[in-house]
Amino acid sequence: MTTTEYEALPALAEEPPSTRSGTVVMKFGGTSVADVERLRAVARRLVDAHEAETRVVAVLSAMGDTTDDLVRLAHDISPRPKARELDMLISVGERISGALCAMAIHDLGHEAISLTGSQAGIVTDTAHGRAKIVDIRARRIHEALDAGRIVLVAGFQGVSTDFDITTLGRGGSDLTAVALAAALGAEACEIYTDVDGVHTADPRVVGNARKLHAVSYEEMLELAASGASVLQLRSVEFARNHDVKLHVRSSFSEAGGTWIREEDERMLEKALISGVTHTGEETVYRVEGLSAGRLFETLAVAGINVDTVLQTGTELVFTAPGPERAETQAALEGLGATWSAREDLGQVSIVGAGMRSHPGVAAKVFTKLAELGIEPEIVTTSPIKIACFIPRGQVEPAVRALHDAFELDRPDAVRAHA
Ligand code: ASP
Ligand code: MG
Fold it and tell me: What confidence score (pLDDT) does residue 418 get?
């Protein structure tokens, strides 16, 4: 189930976005800022954009595995770190990146200022570890841009309405970047990462997977929800709700990447299938003897991120992330439910906006899987996705077979194989 929860865009009374053309938000992920050399390269890229007369706002992630290391450190000192203090700790990584990059920019003869989320005016609710942005007070960013500075905002964090530091959930720097792009009326939000765009399948599994030139928000939501990890799901929702054009591209080359934007006719005419995704990280639960309301209410209160949900007769089937297994089990035990869990299933999905208007896609999927001797355990669909739970060991062969069957490796097949 793709969440489509609306994240309100902060009103920006002081500065209507439309008067601010020529602004770009450039976000760099952890690998792109992993060491001093890479931070220097990021500084260079920001300076180049700035020299091209653009108002540059950069959002940086923490260097390499810094966030993981900090989370580990917290758990080393305490089995249950307090959420407020955990946020104080793990928000630090992004500050380090910003300050270092600002120093490198100064050495290139340009003015830059690094800001924490709080200094940048990113106001959130009080839900530590998964805070929602409720307002962006961008005055300080505008002032710095007006003064000719490159502005570096620490990703993944804000300040709560109770004045505490909050974080936006793992991968949250994407959301910082998209929200700032919306608030500043930026022309685009560029997401610089360690891959060169969104592909027809995971290139580590499918050798001849191709980079997609453009996908719609809806397709990207489905791709991100079903295994494509290049963008945080919430950031794609936010981009769609606020019409922010995203450009996912490599920080290690000048080549263009993948645009994520409103669906247009060109996309629809040409594309049948955009990509095949897979994931192996979900556990499939079957529950008897509970009402759906009671079950999902309890899971929601426990903060468990339920994905696929099915009901047949009195049986409820749902999936939840593998790492949340202990919490999920505790919740089910607490309800006194009869339940079972399967860890041996993975999911293969095909996604494409053209599916809406072309029959025969499902038939092709099931025929292909049958040829491999695979019978899906569970199948779920949306108007633009077919997802099959199959034994985990067969996931990769299935991805390759479906990629082949829909001829996604052909250059002219990318958005042109209808
Ligand atoms: N550093 C944070 C994380 O690893 C946020 C981000 O990189 O987007 O989740
Ligand atoms: Mg990320």
Answer: 32
pLDDT at residue 17, rounded to an integer: 44
Mean pLDDT across 171-200: 96
Ligand 1 pocket test, pick from 68, 94, 96, 156 with the greatest ligand atom count within 8 Å of Cβ, gives: 156
In eight-state DSSP terms, residue 34 is S
Nearest ligand, CA 172: 1
Kindly report whether the global pTM for this prediction surpasses the value 0.90.
no
Distance 167 CA to ligand 1 centre (A): 9
Asked whether residue 163 carries a pLDDT value surpassing 50, the answer given is: yes
pLDDT in tens, 28-70: 999 999 999 999 999 999 999 999 988 999 999 999 999 999 9
Order across the sheet with 345-351: list the strands. Answer: 275-279, 345-351, 385-391, 378-382
How many Å apart are CA 160 and CA 134, to the nearest integer?
9
CA 357 – CA 383 distance, rounded (Å): 9
With contact defined as beta carbons under 8 Å apart, do 378 and 391 qualify? no
Contact in structure between 55 and 64 (CB atoms under 8 Å): no
Q: Ligand 1 centre from 168 Cα, in Å?
A: 9
Distance, in Å, from the CA atom of 15 to the CA atom of 17, rounded to the nearest integer, reads 6
Distance 187 CA to ligand 1 centre (A): 24
Pocket test for ligand 1, best of 42, 67, 95 (most atoms within 8 A of CB): 67
Assign 229 to helix, strand or coil: coil
Window from 174-178, 191-195, 308-312 with minimum mean pLDDT: 308-312
pLDDT, residue 315, reads 93
Report the phi/psi class of residue 40: left, alpha or beta, with left for phi > 0 and alpha for psi in -120 to 50: alpha
Q: How far is CA 79 from the centre of its chain?
A: 28
The ligand 1 site (C-beta within 6 Å) comprises 30, 61-62, 67, 93, 155-156, 170-174
Kindly tell me the burial class for residue 321, based on how many C-beta atoms sit within 10 Å of its own C-beta (0-12, 13-18, 19 or more).
middle
Q: What is the pLDDT of residue 2?
A: 40
Q: Which atom of ligand 1 is nearest to the CA of 61?
A: 7
Distance 170 CA to ligand 1 centre (A): 5
| CA nearest ligand 1 atom 9, residue | 170
Question: Partners of 287 in the beta sheet?
Answer: 316, 339
Instruction: Give residue 53 CA to ligand 2 midpoint distance, Å.
Output: 28
